[in-house]
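Obj.: predict assembly geometry.
Materials: sequence records (below).
Method: joint structure prediction, all chains together.
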Amino acid sequence: MIRLEKRRMPSQVWTWAAPVVAVLATMVAGGAVFAALGKDPLVAIRTIFWDPLFSEFAFYYRPQLMIKGAPLVLIAIGLSLGFRAGIWNIGAEGQYIMGALAGAGVALAAYPLEAAWLFPAMVIAGALGGWAWAMIPGLLKVTLGTNEILVSLMLVYVAEKILAAMALGLMKNPDGFGFPGSRNLQQYPSATSWIDQAAGLHWGVAAAFIAVIAAYVLLSRHVLGFQIRLAGQAPRAARFAGVNTARLVLFCLGTSGALAGMAGLFEVAGPSGVVSIDFNAGYGFTAIIVAFLGRLHPLGILLAGGLMALTYVGGDMAQANLQLPKAAIQLFQGMMLFFLLAVDVFTNFRLRINLRGAA
Amino acid sequence: MEMLINIAAFMFVAATPLTLAAIGETVVERAGVLNLGVEGMMIMGAIVGFMVAVNSGSPVLGLVMAAAGGMGLSLIFAFVTQVALANQVASGLALTLFGLGLSALLGQGYQGVKPPAFPQGDIPLLADIPVLGPILFQQDPVVYLAIALTVAVFVFLRFSRAGLVLRAVGENHDAAHALGYKVVRIRIAAIAFGGACAGLGGAYISLIRVPQWTEGMTAGIGWIALALVVFGAWRPLLVGLGACIFGGIEAVQLNLQAAGVAIPVSLLAMSPYLITILVLVIMSAVRTGAPASLGRPFHASS
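Observations (raw structure tokens):
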């Protein structure tokens, strides 16, 4: 007779062991999938997790890790605040797109002006774009109690349609010989987010680190961070303690929207360069996995973002060297979240094995 | 007139995948489980049904296996949420991300392949009635199946003993447990039924409505189905009606696009999503009762 017994306190050990176990389990299950695809599982796992860091060509791939990791961490930090408080913003992808459009719009309107204020203005516009897009589910939730999960998700599809309309219409490069997509912001010195392209360093990387530190301070030192944690763990107690739930909802959704919007702007003004119909790479959804894998903790998210960036970069390598299909990596990332959620049971429950049968 | 008949006939085609997925989710939510993975189960059904139909040449077998595929995926969710007691919102999201990845992987090499044609289900005599015939009686069999399923679920929940137990589990799982009902087993069964329905709905898109396979082809229909359950206030007949309204909007929207009306295409294309938001806003103002235990994990010890 095997049964689960609730722990009085969540296990400290399992809180941090669960993600590690989940990653290992994903490697095993993922290896099985790769084997089923006719690839050597050990080589595939090594290509994804080891080669980008330590192979002889790693100098080329390491900068890629920062490029892929920065938007994931930036978005996941914002999402984690809401997730902790039981506010489910799953439309970060839409906020990312709207932030990119708002920020790039400023640059494209100013073109070819060169000015020091241009890039800061773009960052502010990007944050505002994401913030405004997240405020739609936020305001609807606090005024009417509308479900923020579905509204924020629907707005992703709306944002994608707006992006398509912009890339093919208003923001299309007038000197682009009719090709879709905007001017390349990488080649616009005042507007690019690159600091050092060869090192993989752009302002988004800096922003991600700042966000991690800010979130850490907020959650551990500020009363608002305490209220976020309280609202998530004990909603009734939070109400008695005088926590303003509406303000909390708006703060969490607004912050995550602004961070996602900024991430979008840094991406479009740097690594992507062009407002094109598919410049968004699904970071908004992958960031959900990053937030959970990082246990909704700022430092954990930093590590999880690095790991997830590794699967992107290693996935690209595996695609090039082993002809592993791109979808396999997507599957791999989804699996990781599942394993984490399943393993997490041991954080709150302990397994009791009673061989003599039920008492 | 011709155009109106076309719109009305296509309304049912557009409504069928929504109805199937939303009816399945209605049962799941009435049992107190919030499965946000409808989109993932639909896309799995879409690819599994497509693969089986192409390889076996039998679209009917494709539909059956699509239901099995959706059910298989939903059982992962059932295990994670009912046995391992994980957060249902996060698990549902995981199911969607996982399903999108797995379907994309399975679907490699099926892009641009044409599936075997599905037999038409014209009902003799009735199909020849002017106007009503083409709208109601010249549909494919799955449309009729979706309608029958809606009514069956209504009867099951409203009039059967098992339906009453299922609702009891959804309203108050502790009380149901105290009465001796197997809460976890009932919920797993409901989740499996929801998965099968979603898989069927997905296969309808890839085998009949489009019919073709492209990555991510469900394009949010699973999420709209979730919104429809809220719209229908967790009542099967209202959910079915909501699906028809949405199907109608989709049909009008596509006809307007095709006719080249002076409304921007992008605005028309985003209309289903905007209308979903509008519907959610209206329904939240009305405040209808969700099952009381919706989304709450159940563990017999507490």
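Conclusions so far: The mean pLDDT of chain B is 85.
To do: check interface contacts against the pulldown list.
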